[in-house]
């Protein structure tokens, strides 16, 4: 067990780096696919969920973005980017009250 889980974590990190590159190149669909694979290998990393949420937001897939960001927050309630990504998706959907709540979490108010 130890070995395979370790290599999964490593593979997931490599996929994340490739996803980040795709994202920087504005290839958001590709980024989502790579984050999908990273999450399959290591679903307990909040960063992958928050990053995929951001890619979904860029694709105007706000419902998916909210779901992913919510998952990131569940995994790590102290991870402020999760709240920020969800707030941004809510804002894009015109859900200002929800967005405000999330942004207040980010700023620690």
UniProtKB/TrEMBL annotation:
Keywords: Repeat, TPR repeat. Signal peptide: none annotated. Pfam families: TPR_1. TPR repeats lie at residues 12-45, 46-79. GO terms for molecular function: molecular adaptor activity. The keyword Repeat applies. One of its GO terms (cellular component) is TRC complex. GO terms for biological process: post-translational protein targeting to endoplasmic reticulum membrane. PANTHER family: LD24721P. This is Serine/threonine-protein phosphatase 5.
């Amino acid at each position: 067990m130890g070995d395979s889980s370790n290599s999964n974590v490593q593979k997931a990190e490599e996929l994340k780096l490739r996803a980040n590159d795709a994202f920087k190149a504005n290839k958001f669909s590709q980024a989502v696919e790579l984050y999908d694979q990273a999450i399959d290998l290591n679903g307990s990393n909040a960063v992958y969920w928050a990053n995929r949420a951001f890619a979904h937001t860029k694709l105007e897939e706000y419902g998916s973005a909210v779901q992913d960001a919510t998952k990131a927050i569940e995994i790590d309630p102290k991870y402020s980017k999760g709240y920020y990504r969800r707030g941004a998706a809510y804002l894009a959907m015109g859900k200002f009250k929800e967005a405000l709540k999330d942004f207040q979490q980010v700023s620690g108010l």
